[in-house]
Amino acid sequence: MAEHSFDAYINSDTSLIPQPTQATPSDDALDSKNTIKILCFGDSLTEGYTQWGSIMAPYSTKMKSSLMDGWGIGKDIGGWEVGVETRGVSGEGVREMRGRMQRACSSPSNTAQPPHLTIFLGGTNDLGRGRRPIDIFNDIIDVISTPLSKGSRILLLTIPECAAKNAGLNFRRNELNKMLKHYAQEMSKDVYVFDLYEKIKYHDMSEEDRNEYWDDGLHLTAAGYKMMGEMVAKRVMEFVCFKENMVHFKGKEESMCEAAEEVKGQHAKEATNEGGVSDGKSGE
After folding, report:
1. Are 161 and 198 in contact (CB under 8 A)?
2. What is the per-residue pLDDT across 62-110, written as a single tens digit (0 to 9) for each?
3. Are 280 and 272 in contact (CB under 8 A)?
4. Which helix (H) or strand (E) holds 126?
């Protein structure tokens, strides 16, 4: 995509932003008795929009397989499933997500058993349309209040950067991300945060990595969404684990969940066996 297309995007030309499509939820084993249920909710970056919408490659697919491997579900932990419901709508702003979230939380399967965890990513389109960070933030809090009221925990993802270089856009994105991190860290015991912005930086990547992971400078490639799914899974395993056949969420002051510690230890052992790291650290 030409650079001037991003200039049009940040000047509220919505032609670059995919028009909202009807949500098509993806359900995996949501009715299983011992299922840890995760709802992935958001816009095109949740739907997995890539190659101008000809392919949808949601991060949730890789996230699920990474969680099952990391938790040892089907191996060390029996009788459990990971049920992932993906509800992303390309081109949607946060204000439009309110009703859709309410409908998602009132679906038959989610009424019977609300998701244990709701992963939310939204605000990219709102920033492109010139909205103020505080207004976007207030709308996000409004949207996630529905799953919170049903007993679901929340994982907020910060908004990643894009190819566009614009001081005003960068400032508003940074302000919104600060608000999200502060809310998760200081304001609510049931809300966690993953700083996706810091993990997938367009301008810090080599040209080779940029070509592999970024599609049009705003959306990711299938490989990029796969990488994102692995990152999100790693964050989830830091605060979600299984204790006495129950799903456990660690508190903000608790150490990392045992499950995540075991996974880290296994990775460190593998690295040592491969001759990479000998001091027990992962080397990351």
Report:
1. no
2. 999 999 999 988 776 777 889 999 999 999 999 999 999 999 999 998 9
3. yes
4. helix 124-128
Residues 248 and 257: beta-carbon distance below 8 Å: yes
Amino acid at 149: S
Its pTM surpasses 0.85: no
- Spell 237-247 as b/e; 16+ CB within 10 A means b: bbbbbbeeeeb
Q: Is the pLDDT of residue 20 over 70?
A: no
Q: What tokens were used for 174?
A: 């940074």
How many Å apart are CA 61 and CA 183, to the nearest integer? 28
Order of all β-strands in the sheet with 81-88: 81-88, 35-42, 117-121, 153-157, 191-194
Helix, strand, coil tally for the chain in percent (to 5): 45, 15, 35
